[in-house]
Amino acid sequence: MLAKKTSKNQVTLPKKILKGIPETDYFDVSLREGSVVLRPVTVAEHHSRLTTVREKIRDLRITSTDIDKAIQWARVRLT
Q1: How many domains does the structure of the chain reveal?
Q2: pLDDT for 3-19, tens place per residue?
Q3: Helix/strand/coil for 20
Q4: Sign of CA dihedral 37, 43, 46, 48
Q5: Residues 7, 41, 49, CA angle at the centre, nearest 5°?
Q6: Out of 20, 22, 38, 68, which could bridge 27 as a Cys pair, Cβ 3.0 to 4.6 Å?
Q7: Is-contact 71 63, C-beta < 8 A?
Q8: pLDDT tens readout for residues 11-49
Q9: Residue 15, Cβ density class (10 Å: 0-12 exposed, 13-18 middle, ≥19 buried)
Q10: Is 1 part of a structural domain of the chain?
């Protein structure tokens, strides 16, 4: 499939290509071995990931004591 670059360096992706990827407005763009690679990304609202982690911790009933013990365990393992 061909896609033309405009004078403003814009490229329109063909509908057939867009049907094969998740709905997204943003792409991570990189160059790999001379090819342009577009990876769809999801932009999360500020603090939304933290909120998700806190909800999981609450749902699993993990306490601050559990977290302290896990940190201590990990520190011992690293030495």
Answers
A1: 2
A2: 999 999 999 999 999 89
A3: coil
A4: negative
A5: 140
A6: 38
A7: no
A8: 999 999 989 988 888 999 999 999 999 999 988 777 788
A9: exposed
A10: no
